[in-house]
Amino acid sequence: MAAIAACWGYVFVVLLDLGGVFPRSPDPIPLMLGLIEIFDLILAFYVGLLSHKALGHL
Question: Whole-prediction pTM value?
Fold first, then answer.
């Protein structure tokens, strides 16, 4: 259950970051950093699904 909570918390924070809720720097985000953030979001979502499946929720 802790893995699920951490995973969904991370997904929530990344979505807030990509949505522009947090203060932004005057420099644009480099392409590679943006791709890494999106890849992290996909991996966190996948880990959350696997955790739910392991507990029998899916």
Answer: 0.70
